[in-house]
Specification:
This protein is α+β, with helices and mostly antiparallel strands. 22% of the residues lie in helices and 33% in strands. It starts with a helix and ends with a strand. 42% of the residues are buried. Bound molecules: fe (ii) ion (FE2).
């Protein structure tokens, strides 16, 4: 192809834009992570290095054309390093977007001074597929901040074009400080391409512990609006539950500072409504996702605590599969193997010998689940035809 001056100029400009965008992306303290918004649409969160005003530019093409930011009770979210914006898909299946922010150099009552705006490269995000199309999910559990291990697991996802990922608990173990939390968050975000594929950060018993545990909620935007909730993707209704600590509330380790008894009851009320709703009833498959499974070979107390509250509500519900972690031993329990009325897929642990990453693909015809170890070997597999 012959380069006219105009096309050559636009090539150079494009190259400069790409290089600058990379620079801008690298200077973020936390790279963008997309989450399924409870209001529909998509939530993006990111951190700037300096206090700033941040917003998102988006649209159906790379021309963008729309702007969204966060306004809280009349005030645009600004003079902060933490940014969160929800933007709508409208009728579009895929949106292009970029992050934008202006660092604030002086914040006076009657005048605010900004640096020039900075932008990321243009990124893309797609809506969850409709019920007549396949959905693919990558699931991690119990990585316990073992970041080299996580990198080995992520490598097993190559070629797997997942729509979203789930961290199903104990991936941020006993979070003690923002610094340590961010270190893991950035590695996880990068590994699952969170700037272009939504991620669901879910809690396990270790996310309830440590000095930073009570801060986690403000860092995440769960799809149901709480750490429990439900959402639809492809032919599946995903129901997320937050099973609570692995010992009774009054255990001395918790210093009187937890009340999962009441929280599990609150979730039972949510479950009753969810199980009776059209979205649940009309789905082809219904998958429960929570860290601690309701059934255990030894009938351990950690399973009994949530089961005593939820089993009656779930009784007879057409659950296709439960996806869990916690025991650090990967296994698939077929229906009724250990008193479980639906099959359980339990991911592995936090070292090279026990860890797994789960690849889940659900088409209108069948559900296929594979757990891979760090060597890429399929160590557990399950196939369930559509009912
Ligand atoms: Fe656990």
């Amino acid at each position: 192809m012959k380069h006219t001056p105009k096309t050559f100029a636009s090539l150079v400009l494009g190259l400069i834009a790409a290089l600058t965008a990379h620079h801008a992306f690298a200077q973020l303290a936390v790279q963008p992570y997309l989450q399924l918004s409870p209001e529909g649409g998509i939530t993006v969160m990111w951190n700037t290095e300096k206090p700033a005003y941040g917003w998102v530019e988006y649209g159906p093409t790379a021309e963008l054309g729309h702007k969204a930011d966060l306004v809280i009770e009349g005030l645009r979210n600004a003079n902060t390093t933490r940014h969160k914006v929800v933007f709508p898909f409208g009728e579009h299946q895929t949106l292009h977007y970029r992050l934008a922010w202006k660092n604030i150099t002086a914040f006076g009552p009657y005048s605010v001074t900004f640096e020039d705006p900075q932008y990321t490269e243009i990124l893309k995000v797609s809506q969850m597929p409709p019920p007549d199309q396949a959905v693919r999910v990558a699931i991690f559990n119990d990585t316990h901040d073992n970041l080299p291990l996580f990198e080995k697991l992520v490598a097993q996802l190559e070629g797997f074009d997942f729509h979203f990922s789930v961290f199903n608990g104990d991936c941020f173990a006993d979070p003690a400080s923002e610094e340590r939390f961010i270190r893991s968050l950035n590695v996880y975000n990068k590994g699952v391409d969170s700037a272009q594929r939504p991620v669901v950060y879910h809690r396990g018993n270790h996310e309830y512990r440590g000095a930073f545990a009570r801060e986690l909620r403000s860092w995440f935007s769960p799809p149901g609006g709480h750490f429990y909730g439900a959402f639809s993707a492809g032919p599946v209704r995903f129901v997320m539950l937050d099973a609570g600590e692995d010992k009774p509330d009054e255990n001395k380790e918790y210093s009187g500072l937890i009340d999962f008894t009441a929280y599990r009851k609150e979730q039972a009320e949510f479950l009753k409504q969810e199980l009776a709703g059209d979205a649940f009833l009309d789905a082809t498959y219904r998958i429960l996702v929570h860290h601690i499974p309701l059934y255990n070979e030894r009938d351990a107390v950690f399973s009994r605590l949530p089961r005593e509250v939820w089993e009656d509500v779930l009784n007879g519900a057409p659950i296709t599969l439960g996806i869990h972690g916690h025991t650090h031993r990967h296994i698939i329990h077929p229906t009724n193997a250990i008193g479980n009325p639906y099959p359980l897929a339990i991911g592995g642990g936090n070292n090279d010998a026990s860890a797994t990453v789960t690849k889940l693909e659900i088409t209108p015809e069948k559900l296929t689940l594979e757990m891979l170890n760090v060597a890429g070997e399929v160590v557990e597999a399950l196939e369930i035809p559509a009912p």
